[in-house]
């Protein structure tokens, strides 16, 4: 197993065993949480350096669930709100994160198509959440193991810091199993 595959596997298990709401008043739990997310975001940034430059980060990750954020800082458009490309980034990367951490590094996610619908300008950071059920994950893995590939769709709602819906996304992914044709 390659080093990056081991890092993905270890970071995923580390974060899955942490409390995403651990406060600093519980130092051991807080350290486990913060160090785990720092590792995950570094892995993502090493694979896709564009994410670090644009302030993308995973804030919560557990089996079948991811919440991610993109910062307004550095991503403003010509009238001061969040640039359209930043919406795309925060809506697209989590599908790969779910694939890698739920299926494992032997599966490669590929975005096939994405649609964004803008509701209102975001004048703050934006977050998005995605979920896959245990049954969906098991189906994806079984199909990829059997056929060498599978597909899934993620629908997301992007919200500003006040909780207002600012955009929606529909992303269609294909997953390929490494080593199968």
TrEMBL record:
Highest taxon, organism lineage: Bacteria
Name of protein: YiiD C-terminal domain-containing protein
């Amino acid at each position: 197993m390659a080093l990056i595959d081991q890092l993905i596997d270890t970071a995923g298990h580390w974060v899955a065993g942490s409390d995403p709401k651990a406060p600093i008043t519980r130092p051991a739990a807080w350290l486990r949480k913060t160090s785990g997310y720092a590792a995950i975001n570094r892995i993502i940034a090493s694979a896709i350096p564009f994410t670090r430059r644009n302030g993308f980060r995973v804030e919560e990750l557990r089996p079948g669930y991811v919440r991610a954020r993109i910062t307004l800082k550095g991503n403003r458009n010509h009238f001061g709100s969040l640039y359209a490309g930043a919406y795309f980034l925060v809506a697209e990367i989590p599908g790969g994160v779910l694939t890698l951490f739920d299926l494992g590094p032997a599966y490669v996610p590929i975005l096939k198509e994405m649609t964004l619908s803008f509701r209102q300008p975001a004048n703050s950071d934006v977050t998005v959440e995605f979920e896959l059920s245990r049954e969906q994950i098991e189906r994806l893995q079984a199909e990829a193991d059997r056929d060498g590939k599978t597909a899934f769709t993620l629908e997301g709602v992007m919200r500003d810091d006040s909780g207002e819906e600012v955009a929606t996304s529909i992303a269609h992914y294909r997953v390929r199993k490494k080593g199968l044709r």
